[in-house]
Amino acid sequence: MMFHVKRQDDTTPGPPADERAPEAPEAASRLFGDNLERAIHYADLLAGPGVRRGMVGPREVGRLWERHLLNCGVVAELIAENAIVHDVGSGGGLPGIPLALVRPDLRITLVEPLLRRTTFLDEVVAELGLDNVEVLRGRAEELRGRTSADVVTARAVAPLAKLAGWGLPLLGSHGEMLALKGDSAAEELAESEADLRKLGAVSWEVAHAGEGIVDPLTTVVRVRIGNVAPLKEARSAKARRGVKSTGARATRRRPAK
Q1: How far is CA 237 from CA 142, 154, 232, 242, in A?
Q2: Is residue 255 predicted with pLDDT exceeding 60?
Q3: Helix 185-198 and helix 160-167: axis angle, to 10°?
Q4: Please, are residues 99 and 75 in contact by the beta-carbon 8 Å criterion?
């Protein structure tokens, strides 16, 4: 039997009934804890403005919780405490915003090149009051040598080899990329091993997350890298080669608590 969590106050003015997400399942309460109401608000934002503005398809509204918010939020169990996380190709904020709600200790940057999406993300971050999230308009390639994350996340962005080419260069020493994938994850990983080695990966595996929260479990390709040069050294080397970097644009910066 599936249990659902009712909104705390259904008399409070909110989105029209046809622009609300389905009731949150009981698992959402266990996953999001004190941030459940924020998660419900985010689900409504995806179901209403998110659909109208092309962040998610209308057919996804009925499965926003199971396929999107819960599926993404459980990845938090794979991330170390107080990590710096870059969510590449964040789109409507998945998986970055669910991760921020589950783990307020994380410092998350939502990296997205399209203006209409970063505008939506800015509005969501402001409405939810997420002090541990910033939105950065730009491509992952533009951030190489300018940032160092502990974890890079991505979902439904690109084939694994291409995604690794964007994400692994953003990591600091011993960082890891967590790519949410489907049933073909193991096959895609096997086909990408040579590319991963060239990019400095030292280990990779298919992991699963969400026991007791989601069924089926969330499938994640986990790729770790070794030592990398400090940012200052990397920048100096780039300067000596005369390479000019392009500038990504921060649309909102919010200090982490």
Answers
A1: 16, 28, 9, 9
A2: no
A3: 40
A4: yes
Mean pLDDT of 230-252: 46
Cis peptide before 216 (omega within 30 of 0): yes
**Domain boundaries defined on the chain:** 84-252
84-252: in CATH 3.40.50.150: yes
Digit-coded pLDDT (tens) for 162-200: 999 999 999 999 999 999 999 999 999 999 999 999 999
119, 171 contact by CB (below 8 A): no
* Cα–Cα–Cα angle for 88, 93, 99, rounded to 5 degrees: 85
| 1-to-4, 6, 31 alpha-carbon distances in Å | 10, 16, 18
CA-to-CA separations, 63 to 17, 41, 56, 60, in angstroms, rounded: 16, 15, 11, 5
Per-residue tokens: 221: 């390709």
Radius of gyration of the chain (CA): 18
Asked if residue 6 lies in contact with residue 23, where contact means CB atoms within 8 angstroms, the answer is yes
The predicted structure's pLDDT at residue 145: 85
